[in-house]
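User: Hi! I have a protein structure encoded as tokens and I'd like to know what sequence might fold into it. I'm fairly new to this, so please keep things simple.
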């Protein structure tokens, strides 16, 4: 018992060191992008001042910051509305995408019939579908969720189908030889194999979910960043439009990071292997 305390105490600094190492690596990885962004904002401010650009054409970053301070009290309700639509729509896209991917992988005829239709459906822009959905479903939350789900549906289906198809054929044959049912095969072999692909598609969908919500709000909404942009455009407040653009970007990044963290929690073996390969 006397020897356990030093070992436990020694493990804590090592774990803390690994944690700091991961954060340090992340900081080093994203520092160049942050430096470039700051430089571009500084150049933007300088060019607006030198060229004496009118605020209703291109406001300076400082003017955009002042607009944020001036109208910031209006943003929380708009942000909450857009974020709710984006998250719920992304969840709907994930559930529907996984179910359809399982269907396409399980029934070859369904894949031959439905897959070309799914691909063709992506040629129709969401901005065209949104007004139709408002007429068919109404201007409530449901129509906006459908728009977001349609935007994020395709990458989830494609990535999950590819993940299911990439399962180890030897492992599939093994569980079948042991008398596993189709459901057991799906649960123990196919789904674990498809998890990384599913989250790869979900990350892409997360990057577009907020945009889908904004598109739906452009058509008809009482709250949301889309209607905030429409009102700012009507009053020629280009600085407020840039505020909304910045908030949309931050929301999209936050949603992407949340999905990335979920992916790490759901498939830690993948990221452990990737780190091992990078380290070697």
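Assistant: Happy to help. Inverse folding works backwards from shape to sequence: for each of the 280 positions I chose a residue that suits the local structure. Here it is:
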């Amino acid at each position: 018992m006397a020897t356990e305390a030093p070992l436990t105490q020694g493990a804590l600094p090592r774990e803390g060191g690994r944690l700091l190492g991961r954060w340090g690596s992340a900081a080093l990885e994203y520092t160049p992008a942050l430096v470039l962004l700051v430089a571009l904002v500084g150049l933007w401010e300088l060019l607006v001042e030198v060229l004496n650009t009118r605020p209703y054409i291109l406001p300076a970053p400082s003017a955009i910051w002042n607009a944020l301070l001036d109208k910031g009290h209006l943003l929380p309700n708009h942000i909450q509305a857009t974020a709710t639509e984006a998250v719920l729509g992304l969840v709907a896209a994930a559930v529907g995408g996984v179910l359809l991917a399982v269907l396409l992988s399980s029934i070859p005829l369904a894949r031959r019939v439905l897959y070309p239709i799914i691909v063709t459906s992506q040629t129709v822009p969401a901005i065209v579908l949104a007004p139709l959905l408002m007429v068919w479903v109404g201007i409530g939350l449901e129509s906006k969720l459908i728009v977001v789900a349609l935007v994020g549906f395709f990458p989830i289906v494609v990535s999950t189908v590819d993940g299911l198809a990439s399962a180890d054929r030897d492992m599939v044959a093994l569980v079948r030889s042991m008398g596993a049912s189709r459901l057991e095969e799906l649960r123990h072999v196919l789904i674990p194999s498809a998890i990384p692909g599913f989250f790869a598609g979900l990350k892409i969908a997360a990057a577009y979910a907020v945009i889908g919500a904004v598109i739906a709000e452009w058509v008809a909404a009482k709250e949301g960043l889309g209607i905030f942009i429409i009102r700012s455009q009507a009053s020629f407040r280009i600085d407020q439009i840039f505020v909304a653009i910045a908030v949309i970007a931050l929301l999209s990044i936050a949603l992407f990071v949340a999905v990335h963290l979920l992916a790490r929690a759901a498939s830690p073996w993948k990221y452990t292997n990737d780190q091992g390969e990078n380290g070697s």
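A useful reference point when you look it over: The chain is about 85% helix and 0% strand. Feel free to ask if any position seems puzzling.
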